[in-house]
Structures are given as structure tokens and as C-alpha cells.
Amino acid sequence: MPIAIRDDTVFIILRKIDEFNQNGGQGDINFSATDFTGLGLTQSDLLGHLDYLNQRQYIDAEFTGNAYGNQEDVPSLVDSDEVGFRVANTFGAEDGPLPHLITFKRATLTEKGKSMLQDMEENPPKDLDKGPRVPLITEHTPFLEKVKIKGSLPDIYDARDITETVFRVMRDVMTTAEADRVQAELHDAVLPTDEKALQMEVADLWKDRNPIVGLLSRIRPPLKGPAPIGIDSKLFLTRVDNEAGVPKTVNAEIVVAAVFSATKDELSQERIEAVAQWLPEGKVREIWQAA
User: Fold this and answer.
1) Which residues contact 208 (CB under 8 A, 6 or more apart)?
2) Of 55, 109, 181, 284, which residue is the least packed, with the fewest Cβ within 10 Å?
């Protein structure tokens, strides 16, 4: 069944692809439900828009999967070495409890697409001003706003508390020296605000507010390896879920990905690669690399 092509959705897709390539086009790009909050978009709508833009040569993309298909048409396994562009199915498919992926080997704007984007930037679609949609994240978005938006969290204080928990578990799998190197790069303000409780740098979130826990984290060896002695991916996510009080509307994987993404924006490439080696193999390391 044909879908109605919406200007607001086209604008969001074109701008995100353009920003991805303007920033070097390295790694993966994810479209999630938070990019289209308030627009009433379904998974099929999103994939239909992508297919339309590709067929009409506004974007030049090579992807696998059926743009209008069901869950079984969507690949659930991705070779990260071959994939540079991914679309996360976070729209809650009824026939599968886990997100599936449509994979893109490449995605760029054609000259036709660039021209359309330029016109839309000069005259943004009116529908963008309607409904409670979440703003697009840019390089100027403050740290906690990124966590709140990407984690689909209700407020900034949830973003702060969850970030502190994720950071605590990250420190637990690192040496003190490596944790200090990470902290040294986290110097941006978390949020421009008059609220004293939020007047801090990202580095302040990295330090534990509990002085005893903070001291223990500096003197204990890194908790690497399988549980229960070490922290594997399952225990990492379980601790975040239990210790952070993750809202029932999301889950540990979503909020960890949000914190990881915001954190990587603060770090040098050298530090990003170093942190990856300390994180548990499997799901958590995959989330870090995809964030």
C-alpha cells in the first residue's frame, strides 16, 4: 500500500544523512524513534520514505532488506566491518522483541537531494513545529540533553542519574589510570543552566558522588572477565537497570547507548578506541562501537 510522503520526515532524513557525511561518514548512523517523536511515524513509514528518496534519486544508497516488508524480511545480524549505515527498528515490531536492522553499505545525498535540502533549510516544513517532537541533536547540543533525547528519558535529572550509573560501571571495568585519562577529556559543561544541581562539567559526572564508592573504585583492580568475579555484558546492563532506576518505557540498552553516544562526542579518537578495549566483549562493546 502506498504511503504519503511527508516533508517533515524527508527533511529529517536528508539532514541527518548530510550531517553524517559532513562529519566524515565514519561508523554507523542510526535512525530511531526519537528522531521522529510526535510525528506518528511507523517503521514502514520510515522505510518507505527511505525507499522513495532512493528510487527518486534524492539519496544514493545501497541497502538490504525489504523497505515495505515484515519483520522476517529484515536482517537481524550485521557485519559491522561491511556496514557503514544502519536504521534501527525501534518502532516496536509486533513479531519480534528485539530491534532488527536495515543495513546500508553507503548513503549520500545526490545533487538533487542537496538542492532539496537547501530549499527545505531555507523554508523548513511547517509540520516540524507541530506536536511534542524531540529536536534533532547537533554538535552544539549539551551533554545531558543528548542523553535525555537519545535515551527517550522524561527529564534532565533522569539523564544525570543514569549517566552517573553508566559511568560508575564503566570505571569498574577500567584501571584507575585509564579512568583518569577519560576524566581528563570530559571538561565540557553538562548543561547551560541556572540550577545549581546541574552546574557541573561532564567530568563531575564521571566522579562518584559517594566518596566511599569513589575511593573503592580507585583502589580495586579492574573487574574484567566473566561474572560473577568480573563484569560481562549481561552484568553491565543489569547493574545499569537496577542501580539507575531505568524508566519502564525504555531499557538498559537504550540508555547505555545514549550515554555512550554523548560521551564519545567528548572524547578523542584515541580515547574512544582505548575505552572500547576495556568494555566487556559482546553486547556492551557493540553498543559503544555503534553509538
Assistant:
1) 164, 168, 171, 214, 217
2) 55
